[in-house]
Amino acid sequence: MFAAMMSGLTGRKGRYDVRFAATPADVEAAQRLRYLAFVARRGPGAVDPKPDASGLDGDDFDALCRHVLIEDRKSGQLVCTFRIQDFHGGAEVSRSYSAQYYGLEALETYTGRMLEMGRFCVHPEWHDGDILRVAWGAMTAYVDENGVELLFGCSSFDGTDWLAHADALAMLKHRHIGPQHWLPRVKAPNVFKFAARLRRKPDAKRAALAMPPLLKTYLMMGGWVSDHAVVDPHLGTMHVFTGVEIALIPPARKKLLRAVAL
Fold first, then answer.
1. What is the pLDDT of residues 20-74, one digit of tens each?
2. pTM for this one?
3. Could you list the residue range(s) of the whole structural domain that residue 118 is in?
């Protein structure tokens, strides 16, 4: 069912409908939800905490991407959105959103199909854990149907003070730094090189509590991260480049994801 949906039709899972944006109004709805999630609720340390008048979060990449909408069937409320952009191989990765902030030259030699997932957000007033499961079920079906070999994107922490994320970042350093042959280099002007600077042993409980849900899901699939975080003073966040090599996802995790995708 989701395979059909991700080809452009409608799919359902539980109480939610999942579909691609089909009209400019659909894209605008996604941008409005992103505004609520990313702009109106900027993280601590944001340079300009005052929301602007547009009520929309948009950029030039919106026209290049396909936008996924997850809606509550009963009310029609848009509860989650994200966008995806396909790349046939690493030679195209410089056109990605992530390439604005990370030097991805190492990935230019990647020969498999790649998919960037970005601007993922859940409506601030919705706290149903099934929303994240439905989103990953849809993504799993798309990855399987289209032969994607590498899923990547940026995963954000709220707030620009690295001390607030110290245990989570230390855990990333100790367990989840990407392979050297794919590792992004520093490109953005404002970064925190946590792999080089942090010497602390992470507290596992505090690290788990501080880890953003999206990043936590990536890591449970065997995902890896950059050795530095990019500081975004506009949104008041820090983000790390995240990659998931589909062939390396643990079999038990693949089974769970595919069960959600049915």
1. 999 999 999 999 999 999 988 777 777 665 656 789 999 999 999 999 999 999 9
2. 0.91
3. 2-261
Q: How many domains, in total, are found in the chain? A: 1
CATH code for the domain of 172: 3.40.630.30
For every residue of the chain, which 3-state class applies, written as one string? CHHHHCCCCCEEECCEEEEECCCHHHHHHHHHHHHHHHHCCCCCCCCCCCCCCCCCCCCHHHHHCEEEEEEECCCCCEEEEEEEEEECCHHHHHHCCHHHCEECHHHHHCCCCEEEEEEEEECCCCCCHHHHHHHHHHHHHHHHHHCCCEEEEEEEEECCCHHHHHHHHHHHHHHCECCCCCCCEECCCCEECHHHHCCCCCCHHHHHHHCCHHHHHHHHCCCEECCCEEEECCCCEEEEEEEEEHHHCCHHHHHHHHHHHC
